[in-house]
Structures are given as structure tokens and as C-alpha cells.
Amino acid sequence: GAVVSQHPSWVICKSGTSVKIECRSLDFQATTMFWYRQFPKQSLMLMATSNEGSKATYEQGVEKDKFLINHASLTLSTLTVTSAHPEDSSFYICSASRDKVNQPQHFGDGTRLSIL
Amino acid sequence: GQNIDQPTEMTATEGAIVQINCTYQTSGFNGLFWYQQHAGEAPTFLSYNVLDGLEEKGRFSSFLSRSKGYSYLLLKELQMKDSASYLCAVGPGSTLGRLYFGRGTQLTVWP
User: Fold this and answer.
1) Which of A33, A110, B21, B87 can pair with A96 through a Cys bridge, CB separation 3.0 to 4.6 Å?
2) Which of B81, B83, B80, B77 is nearest to B104 (CA)?
3) HSE (CB half, 13 Å, CA atoms) of A35?
4) pLDDT tens digit sequence for A57-102
5) In A, which residues are within 8 Å of B97 by CB distance?
6) Phi, psi (5° rounding) for residue B58?
7) What is the DSSP string of B15-55?
8) A105, A108, A109: residue with CB nearest B97
9) How many CB pairs under 8 A join A and B?
């Protein structure tokens, strides 16, 4: 069964809306979670590393004020796309693994975001 | 910088064997992962190699040569459901769990 849950699966909303996406590890604690974005026919691009109890680490070129990440507990990280615009439409995926070396990342089912 | 290279597309027929290659150049190495991703879905874990050699798991096998910066995923007895994108990912080791992904190889299996 799924070990990482992501919600919602689909979001369609108007330009200017803020959208929150949740990522939960279901049967393990994850100090670190990762947020990716994937455009059609392209690979996964790491956006940021979500750290429990501290600030997220953003990849170069990712606006931290636009993509707000909160990792308030060991099983939950949230990504909020603030004031979303059509160019933010994409497939957003989170991942988490058990806090041990060489553990595979398990991915959530992804959130397809469409901004009209 | 990090560079992970794999072919963009491959095709094969049902029952055949296909090998998907991956070469990498990363600052640090803490393992290489293969994931399968069907269109519109999230990736699912297939295999992991951290030492040189072949890891076999049913119809799928993965090979690693650290000295050559090279890995391959071998799929045997291909089935139509194996049509998907196969992602090669390297863990640089600097941050636990962080992965760098190749752009993926889109495999199409024909009847």
C-alpha cells in the first residue's frame, strides 16, 4: 500500500488563488521531505527540501516567497503556491523516506495543478 | 554540477529484453535508483544499487559500475504494461534522501 499520501490529486482554480498541497508519510517519520515539479514529458525537477522544524532549502531559481513550505511535524509537509498564475500549472510531487541511509524515496501520487 | 544522462526513447516488442543505460557525473555518490513512472502518475521505486554489480529482482535487474559512472536497467519478458518512463536517479549523499534525476527514458512496448 501507499506509504506517502498527497492531497489533493487535482486542483483547478482561478489565477491569483493560493493553493495548499499536503504530503504525509503514513507509517514512518520523515525528518526530510522533498518537493518536485514536473512539466509534460520532462523529468522531475527538485524545488525544495522540506526540513522538519526548520526552514526549507530551496533550489536555485525557485521563489521561496511564492512556494511556501511548512514541515510542522515528522509526518506532514505542506507546499502552498501563493497567487498562482497559469505558468504555475504543473504536476507537483512530494517524496519522503525513512530517516536511514540508502532508503528509497517513496513518492506521493502527485497533484495536478491547473490555473485558469 | 550534476549530470545524469539516459536515452530519451526506446521501443521493444512483447517478450523481448531491453536494456536502458544511464551515465552519471555527480559531486558525491550515495547510490543509484531506478524508478518507473506511468503517464500522469507518480514514480514507483524499482531498484537500488550502491555497490558494483548486478541486482536482480524478478523480471527487472539493475547493474552499477561506479568507476565508469554507469548503470543499466534490464527488463526481461517485456509486457505491454511495462510501457512507461524509466527514471535514473543518483543520490549525491550531501543530503539524506536527496536525488538528482535524469530526464527519463520513455519505453514503448509493442504487441
Assistant:
1) A33
2) B83
3) 31
4) 999 999 999 999 999 899 999 999 999 999 999 999 999 987 766 6
5) 32, 34, 95-97, 103, 105
6) 65, -130
7) T--EEEEEEEE-SS-S-EEEEEE-TTS--EEEEEE-SSEEE
8) A105
9) 59
